[in-house]
Amino acid sequence: MVEQQTATIRPWLAHYPQGVPARIDEASPETIVDILRHAAQAYPDRPAVESFGVRLTYAELIKRAEEIAIGLQRFGLQKGDRVAIMMPNVMAYPAVLFGILLGGYTVVNINPLYTARELTHQVNDSGARVLFVLENFAHTVQEALADLTAEMAIVVSPGDLLGAKGTLINFVSRYIKRNVKRYKLPATLPFSNYLFFCQQGKFTPVEVSPDDMAFLQYTGGTTGRAKGAILLHRNIIANVNQCDAWLRSFAGERDDHVMVTALPLYHILALTACCIFMAKIGGCQILIPNPRDFGAFVKTIKKSRMTMIVVVNTLANALASRKDFAEVDFSRLSIAVSGGMATQAAVAKKWKSVTGRPLVEGYGLSETSPLACVNRLDIDEFTGTIGYPVSSTDISIRNAAGEELPNGEAGEICIKGPQVMKGYWNAEEETKKAFTADGYFRSGDVGYVGEDGMVRIVDRIKDMILVSGFNVYPNEVEEVLSGHPQVMEAAVVGVPDEHSGEAVRAFIVAREGGASEEELRAWCREKLTGYKIPRQIIFRDSLPKTNVGKILRRELRDEAIKD
Fold it and tell me: What is the pLDDT of residues 388-409, one digit of tens each?
């Protein structure tokens, strides 16, 4: 009787792919350190990481990681201490990340485009003692120096760990160095000198447990003061095992997976789904240092023989719109995952027309390590949903009073599973607010569960626009606008209005040839009820985005309020 009731309320289990378990081993004793050690023992000669055409094998990666851990041990860091990384996707990043974890320390990932104020908050709030920073961003550290509590900075060059590839090193130096601003920092060490220092010592193995903190993953920076989500080793391991269960049902065992890591490794999606997951299955990740350099990006993936890629909507849109992207050999591409923000149907259609593969949308947050839901990997067409809750994950849709809603009714998406964070760092009240009384994480997203078990996102609660008492969800309006053949990108926000409380304002990046306001309103009138149609349409050359490509509605909203 209980099983029948669960199947009625939680219908997704009946739609799982064959071979995918309802639950994973939530009590697994494995840690991220164990994943790397197993990969180095089982696949020592397989390529683990590639950057600028140079590869590190798993045997070489763990050797470098242990060297990095030695240096931190020689500096006197104790187990549990925090170490920050402020870099884009360069070769040193995975080695530094795994080295920190091997030493029993906690990784604090920092967006290298942060301002001095944002950097100071994250370093000081986390209590990070050491900061690894790419030299291109050392000037930000200098600007923040008077307020930073970190004791030491290690300055990394883009060419570090690429080996003695003279011509390549010169190219990388020329390519990157032109963007390096002058800086002067005390208590810093060049990465090459740091490695020499490391190589003079001996690694002391550290016992790392599933309940140790692996990451302080800061989140909320685009919507307010960033908070550190406490992700334990067991949280990340659970999410990696959830990913593995779904991949095996689709692809079985294969030893040639190549992941294009275009999203930055400081972002939770790339961190788990690309970096750590590739180590789990013995695959190779190709690091893209600057995904906005589309020419270099496409040139790299033409040589990659990729089997997997993870994108966000804006990146998929930009790539699929380029002529040279259509020249890539997609014959080995088996999975293209889209996450991080809502994927638009028009973008998914364009992506498949170029690549021959559908975008498989998933959903999650920093607080959920990140994957909470994903579509079946064997779909032929984009579904427009975020798919099914993954193994051992429960989705509950709640109203404002915290009461569970029946299938088909929209409310806040609340999540329970082994991948959900322990809480927010040094923020007991924020942690309490983030969970329901019965232990579900409150996502802040509005959605519903269909009778088919698929979860559908409506929008973010805080982005909802209230027009004369009616709810308008920006995602829906953006989806319609983006379907117009002359619209490249669209963003929708609410602005104050003396008659209706709020009005819908749309920001448009048009394709070559453009579109008029009246054309777009006529297009919307065919597909939207009257109160959802943008009252104002503003054309822009570009829209403000995070470094991952997520459109910053808050910035557009703030701008509108000042008008």
Answer: 999 999 999 999 899 999 999 9
